Amino acid sequence: MRVFVLDKNLKPLDPCHQARARELLKKGRAKVFKRYPFTILLLDRTVEESVTHPHRIKIDPGSKTTGVAVVQEKTGRVTSALEVSHRGQRIKDALRDSRASLI
Q: CA-to-CA distance for 23 and 26, rounded, in angstroms?
């Protein structure tokens, strides 16, 4: 799992490995910014002092779920991936159930 990283001015940096994030937190060089998705805030670094790589968001639309991935542009390495469930089927089922309870 990769951990999202922000500099002290809240600008995004390259994600790091969870062990590296844990090390930065223990040393006091970072603090937790957000719990989901887990994001740390570096206290001693800015984006100008860091090397960053371009990333791309890829979207795979589906009928019931949509897949979203953040991919490093040069290597194609997946940084983060998630699925978003569509509400359409749940709404349809809820309407059917409420109609059935009336009969």
A: 5
User: Per-residue pLDDT tens for 26-76?
Assistant: 999 999 999 988 999 999 988 898 888 999 999 999 989 999 999 999 999
The closest of 102, 60, 48, 100 to 84, measured between CA atoms, is 60
Starting at the edge strand that comes first in sequence, how are the strands of the sheet with 12-17 ordered?
Answer: 12-17, 2-6, 39-42, 30-34
60 and 93 inside one domain: yes
| Residue 7 domain boundaries | 2-49
**In angstroms, rounded to a whole number, what is the distance separating the alpha carbons of residues 99 and 31?**
50
Same domain for 14 and 30? yes
Query: Residue 24 CB: number of other CB atoms within 10 A?
Result: 21
In terms of domains, do 42 and 8 share one? yes
